[in-house]
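Same chain as my last thread, 199 residues:
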Amino acid sequence: MAETIRALLAGRRGHFQMESGYHSEWWFELGSLFEHPDELRPFVSELARRLLSHGADAVCGPLMGGAKLAELIASELGIGCFVAERSETPEPAGLFPIKYRIPAARRQEVRGRSVAIVDDAISAGSAVRGAYADLVACGARPVALGALVVFGDAAARFAAETGIALEGIERMPFDLWLPADCLLCSAGVALDTVAARAG
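reply #2:
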């Protein structure tokens, strides 16, 4: 299974600033995962099965890739589905500057639900952290994080801190640096500003 997930990822090397504010030498175009639905289906089914074992009665995905995955898992399991919408401040700064919120029309509906938070991939976890915080504010009970790919160990640390499970179909090593500690910045490598920010 793992090798197929890797084959579906379109990655490139360089110097990138992620949505979280961290820097990395790798960038993955995660939209490519959903361009091969027949190949992706077994992985979605396996992730859905694992999340159900944690008592989830609903799933929540941050826009964009997480929302697509949440819809597929919710359809597979026949459970509720929520989307956390992205909210960017005019001048984001520092770590995790992007917020994610459940739309006003559905905030009451998610209250009291046991929710699995999913994203196509998790590295620093900006999107799932934002979704987690707002779900708690809505009165929901997050029970698990799930992803097709978990990059590095930041997601595992966040899951441990919050006392929820982490399920990933594939796990890959992934270096993240604070801007002040970035080896590429120190070497004078310019940031790639073409890639859309994510992660």
